[in-house]
Design goal:
Structural class: mainly alpha
Radius of gyration: 20 Å
Strand content: under 5%
Distance between the termini: 76 Å
Order of helices and strands: HHHHHHHHH
Shape: elongated
Number of strands: 0
Length: 214
């Protein structure tokens, strides 16, 4: 019988190889030959999985995004039920990639962001990832405000306040990744900035709610 090939597993191995190479040399250092060598497959196998380098990169950036999203899901659902405010703090921390074990992943992610400035297909993939994270942040903000009576239940699941705050929080978390990588901030300083912003977020939403009540 012909041997069955796990095509999805092979594509993921190739994506991991791309990330390893990109972490060492940047995306410009990603070549078909080196990807095949690091993934321990033939160049023909790589070409059967992906028709072009751009297609490889698109899959790889989606793969990195999935890993980050899966960690967020695990952090939110891996234990006892968390208050929405705590869940938002955990989610934002995961997205910021501040921990040492995520430093290589942060370098690769930013390499993709830089390349996306001149590649519309990559930019489109990244916009999809950011939109999903923004929606998650908006939902958690809405749930937190509803849980404390700060917002009316049964209204728009993401009213203007939470949507606006979600955009700001995502931009901050994403920016902190760069500041830590280049050494402008330590991971501890970045974490302090992130949580100070979250504390201010709840203060702003509470103040808005109090103003509406008056």
């Amino acid at each position: 019988m012909p041997r069955q090939v796990d095509h999805e597993g092979r594509r993921r191995r190739i994506a991991e190889a791309i990330c390893l190479i990109a972490d060492e040399r940047g995306l410009e250092g990603v070549t078909l030959r080196d990807v095949a060598a690091v993934a321990q497959v033939s160049m023909g196998a790589v070409q059967r999985c992906f028709r072009s380098k751009e297609e490889m990169l698109l899959f790889a950036v989606g793969y990195v995004g999935e890993r980050i999203t899966e960690r967020v899901r695990t952090r939110l659902g891996g234990g006892p039920a968390q208050p929405p405010a705590t869940a938002l703090s955990h989610a934002a921390t995961e997205v910021a990639l501040l921990r040492e074990e995520h430093r290589a992943e942060a370098r690769v992610w930013l390499a993709f962001v830089a390349q996306a400035a001149v590649s519309e297909p990559l930019a489109d993939t990244l916009r999809t990832s950011y939109a999903a994270l923004q929606d998650l942040f908006a939902r958690l903000i809405t749930e937190a405000t509803e849980a404390t009576g700060s917002a009316p239940v049964g209204k728009d699941p993401a009213p203007p306040g939470p949507r606006r705050e979600a955009r700001a929080l995502l931009a901050l978390a994403d920016g902190l990744t760069s500041h830590v990588l280049i050494g402008h901030l330590t991971p501890e300083e970045a974490d302090e900035v992130l949580h100070a912003h979250l504390a201010g977020l709840w203060e702003r939403l509470d103040a808005t709610t109090a103003g509406r009540a008056n």
